[in-house]
Specification:
alpha/beta; four-stranded parallel sheet; globular; binds flavin-adenine dinucleotide
Length: about 425
């Protein structure tokens, strides 16, 4: 990889997401060599992916070049690489661009979509975990409407205009809200010769409430907001299959749609060599102790979504959200320096800053530790928090200007089919 060995200990970080970047920043200007590897040369702000999928934002405004984030850090190296394997016995990682020895390894590879073993759903549905996937979804949504214009078969036309979202978590409901706003504000203007009132948006949730990790009040209010927007929420329904046309469920319910969006779960993005069953918990997350050390290793750490840190409050591990990832990255930065200096490390304590979700214009739900609120004020708080955590002044400005413009004009200008998308269906 053409990275010189220096007298400093080498810390290799796999993944430039929230956890990897906050760790790398913490290690900047320290007497360590930091090598960050990521299969993308940019950091993705995943909470706003749904806005890219629905034409509200350009992808560039929620991505940021990793090299630019870390450009002023001495002893820092970035390599665009997909890490394929870890050899812990040799302290070595193997990537598509070569091999690299480490003194300390940090896995910050995040998570990937979990299809719970259903290969047909995986092949035929749309995911929204990366920018390319969001762009595919954006294209497909728009292509469906173009195609709906061309067909005289009413059944086919309706299926092209129906959207089924599986998963009533923040991703699912935010996307549903955005689609409902497009249906109301944009489709009638763009497709005057289509009866877009027939377009349907369904959210299917296997349990008895949406936004499961949030308060009952937030869950109920989010459902009310969705209902007002004309979204159909189906609870206690589990999707069993999708052949590219029909969604079948564990009940009599079926849905005809050309677009099934799978937002029903994620699992750890594990890497070969560090994926033995005894190292992982449910959802393929690596078991770590309170210092983020992977079970059984002293120089291998994991942070963010891939790490499962269990404590009394979170018996199934910390939530797979941005805040635990950022906080763990920061704390591990401090702990690694202590560990290298042979000082005792500090146990990680998660500061729960709450959770929030937006369901559309003027509609959001916010759960803070001692204060829960919903509606317009929550929506402003949601916008402020998301702008604050976006990386880069330009991105913040672009997103802010877009939001103001979209708000005033009831518009989403990025509804462009730049890269047409075609599904290869599997039966
Ligand atoms: C659509 C969506 C909406 C979300 N909304 C919210 C929200 O509103 N609030 C919230 O708190 N959280 C939200 N989340 C969750 C949040 O984004 C994650 O919890 C967070 O990104 C986890 O950070 P991480 O650093 O662990 O992983 P990531 O941010 O996923 O970063 C992992 C990095 O590792 C890289 N990588 C993975 N495998 C390899 C490999 N083998 N080789 C090289 N590089 C690799 C990836 O390219 C990526 O850059 C959302 C997630 C999604 C998908």
């Amino acid at each position: 990889m053409n990275i010189p060995r220096t007298s400093y200990p080498r810390i290799v970080i796999i993944g430039g997401g929230f956890a990897g970047i906050s760790l790398a920043k913490k290690l900047s200007k320290q007497e360590v060599q930091v090598v960050l590897l990521d299969k993308h040369n940019y950091h993705t702000f995943q909470p706003l992916l749904y806005q890219v999928s629905t034409g509200g934002l350009e992808p560039d405004s929620i991505a940021y070049p990793i090299r630019k984030i870390l450009k002023d850090f001495p002893n820092f190296h970035f390599r665009l690489a997909h890490v394929d394997e870890i050899e812990t016995t040799n302290n070595k990682i193997i990537a598509d661009i070569g091999e690299l020895k480490y003194d300390y390894l940090v896995i910050a590879s995040g998570s990937k979509t979990n299809y719970f073993g259903n290969e047909t759903i995986k092949a035929n549905s749309m995911a929204m975990k990366t920018i390319p996937q969001s762009l595919n979804l954006r294209s497909l949504i728009l292509e469906n409407f173009e195609e709906a214009l061309l067909t005289s078969d009413l059944h086919e036309r309706n299926a092209l205009m129906n959207f089924v979202i599986v998963g009533g978590g923040p991703t699912g409901i935010e996307l549903a809200g955005a689609l409902a706003e497009i249906k109301k504000g944009i489709l009638p203007k763009d497709y005057p010769d289509l009866d877009t009132r027939l377009a349907q948006i369904h959210v299917i949730q296997s349990s008895d409430c949406i936004l499961k990790g949030m308060s009952d009040k937030a869950s109920q209010k989010a459902e009310d907001f969705l209902e007002k927007l004309g979204v159909n929420v189906w609870k206690n329904v589990r999707v069993t299959n999708y052949d590219g046309k029909t969604v079948t469920t564990n009940s009599d319910l079926t849905f005809e749609t050309a677009t099934l969006i799978w937002a029903a779960g994620v699992m750890g993005a594990t890497i070969k060599g560090l994926d033995a069953a005894d190292l992982m918990t449910r959802g393929n997350r690596l078991l770590v102790n309170e210092f983020n050390q992977v079970k059984g290793f002293s120089n291998v750490f994991a942070v963010g979504d891939i790490a499962c840190m269990v404590n009394e409050e979170f018996p199934e591990g910390l939530p797979m959200m941005a805040q635990p990832a950022i906080q763990q990255g920061e704390q591990l930065g401090e702990n690694l320096l202590r560990f290298i200096e042979q000082k005792p490390m500090k146990p990680f304590v998660y500061k729960d800053k709450g959770a929030m979700a937006t369901i559309g214009r003027n509609k959001a739900v916010v759960d803070l530790k001692n204060f829960k609120f919903q509606g317009v004020f929550a929506w402003y708080v949601w916008m402020f928090v998301h702008l604050f955590f976006l990386i880069g002044f330009r991105n913040r400005m672009v997103v802010f200007v877009n939001w103001v413009y979209n708000y005033i004009r009831f518009d989403r200008e990025a509804r462009l089919i730049i890269r047409p998308f075609k599904k290869k269906l599997k039966s």
